[in-house]
Amino acid sequence: MYEDIPMKESRIKNMSIFDLYDWIEYNTDQNYHTENIVIIAMRFGDDEDIENAKYVMKRHNQETHMTQDLKKFRDYIFEKVMSKLDYKARGYIKKRL
Question: Where are the domains of the chain?
């Protein structure tokens, strides 16, 4: 379903917020947490957030598992991006994770 959607910034920025929420929820169900960070960074973050999220995904794929240090960095990126959103938007995203 969502695996067929390319993770392109322009597509993510232009999709409806409801489709984005559904995609995040689907990824969570599939244990695709790192992919969610990339999607969230592409939609709500700045260039540095996006670059860092992509780095985490690349390293995660190379390591074939999530190291503790990488998880801490992923969590840091998530919290940084989420801090840019209003309370209501944070709640909508967090309830889908």
Answer: 15-94
